[in-house]
Amino acid sequence: MTKAVIRVSFLTLIGAFIITSCYSENYEDLYGPRDPECDSVLTTYTAGIRPWIDAECVDCHNSGASSGGLDLSTYQDVFDNANVVLDRIKREPNDPKMMPLGQPKLPRCTIQGFEKWIAAGKPEN
Ligand code: HEC
């Protein structure tokens, strides 16, 4: 009797383990593309990315005042420094390296748009 109970519990446990191990942990597989409500214009250079760089970054990062040795005035500058820019804008607001310095963190969709633009090969679109 007790043995049967133990065996059933054991099998249930194994079964539960097998079922959960087949369960996909991949967010995109489960729910589709992340944040489909983000405006796809944010993934384009001219209409989506250049405007926030001009508004939030160029005051401190231009050819005259290149804080941290970084100039973000041109497409080529953004192209060349995309990874370090992404790293800084993804940081949390309490991180002193978070950019834009002294400003609130950029909106989630803005950051995601920039990430997608990089993944698309940083086109000048
Ligand atoms: C108020 C001025 C100011 C603003 C606005 C600002 N930055 Fe900065 N940024 C700095 C300073 C000062 C440094 C150098 C100190 C440091 O590395 O944190 C810096 C450093 C950086 C670096 C590191 C450069 C390197 O090569 O290590 C990146 C990348 C950067 N900023 C990106 C941005 C982006 C993107 C924005 C706009 C979203 C922005 N910054 C807005 C002042 C600013």
Structural class: mainly alpha
Helix count from the secondary structure assignment: 6
Gyration radius (Cα, Å) is: 23 Å
Mean pLDDT: 86
Helix proportion range: 40-55%
What's the SSE pattern? Answer: HHHHHH
Terminal CA distance: 72 Å
Poorly predicted spans: none
Shape from CA axes?
elongated
Number of E-state strands: 0
User: What's the number of structural domains?
Assistant: 2
Protein name: Cytochrome c domain-containing protein
Overall description:
With 125 residues, this protein is mainly α. It has 2 domains: 2-31; 40-119, no CATH class. It has 6 helices and no strands. The protein has helices at residues 2-22, 27-31, 45-56, 75-80, 82-90, 108-119. The longest helix is centred in the first third of the chain and has 21 residues, at 2-22. 10% of the residues are buried. The mean pLDDT is 86. The structure holds heme C. This is Cytochrome c domain-containing protein.
